[in-house]
Amino acid sequence: MFNCLLVDKDDNGYRTSVKELPDESLSEGNVLVKVLYSTLNYKDALAITGKAPVIRSFPMIPGIDFCGVVEHSESEEFQVGDKVLLNGFGVGEKHKGGLSQKAKVNSDWLIPLPSAISPLQAMSIGTAGYTAMLCILALEKNGITPASGKILVTGATGGVGSFAVKLLSLMGYDVVASTGSSDQHDYLYDLGATEIIDRAELSAPGKPLMKERWAGAIDSIGSHTLANVCASIQYGGAVAACGLAQGMDLPASVAPFILRGVSLLGVDSVMRPRADRVAAWKKLAEILPATEMESIAKVISLAESIDVAEQLLNGDVTGRVVVDVNK
User: Fold this and answer.
1) What 3-state class would DSSP assign to 96?
2) What per-residue confidence (pLDDT) applies to 140?
3) Taking CA 47 as the corner, what is the angle to CA 313 and CA 53, rounded to the nearest 5 degrees?
4) Which Pfam families does the record associate with it (predicted)?
5) What is the sign, positive or negative, of the torsion defined by CA atoms of 167, 168, 169, 171?
6) Is the peptide bond before 59 cis (omega within 30 degrees of 0)?
7) Average model confidence (pLDDT) for the chain?
8) Which domains, and CATH codes, for the chain?
9) pLDDT of res. 322
10) How big is the CA angle at 98 (ends 92 and 99), to the nearest 5 degrees?
């Protein structure tokens, strides 16, 4: 038996609660993991509250990432006692996820936990930090360096945004943070931002081409914000897009791409090839001091995650939320 957060749905709507379930209720998989920590991401909050159709079948254990210890393995890649982590692959959506004391998954979805970081530190980073690093690596692969110029981060007080600001700063970049949270400026400066702009500068419909302001950007907002970011990138710059908080639409023109050679780089963290996942986590372990990982995160229990999910969707959560599934 194990405890988990369970989301169910019937004619009366969504219901989310902490439940005790038998091991037989887990999904199919060749590796059984004793989960130590999971996280609460934007997608998890949508799943828990039912505010968007994230979950594909019910009942479902949410949680798109987790870190833990292998309890049973039918894979040659992982042995009992190995520390592992997982991000994405439909876990928490169509495959029972990480907000649980146990998870059974396909070994191809797991990677070894880097020895330099603990399970708590790994989930303090979580999918948010991992996605931020994928975006940075995409920009660098496209030729962006600290010498290129300022890098914009939209949604800067969110999970991905917070880590993007901190990671870019640690790597020597000049970071401009965009936020609508006027009371979080000190937080962003502490993370390493050198300049802060109001998100209202970017969120309304804009022109096909605007003043060249940034060498690159990491955007988790989408819609008009992403269109305006692309229109404001310097010649030859690049934008890594990984989210849609404002919307899925992209009301832009081709002007920035064909007149300034701007590159729009789509970053997916869910189905990423293993080599990319390993590279991103290796880089995270190299540059993030342990104290930085933990200072950005708040640790809560399974039961508390239900209320915190609502807070997250309302924009009342800053930084990362780690869930101690055994608390």
Assistant:
1) coil
2) 98
3) 105
4) ADH_N, ADH_zinc_N
5) positive
6) yes
7) 93
8) 2-117+294-324 (3.90.180.10), 126-266 (3.40.50.720)
9) 94
10) 95
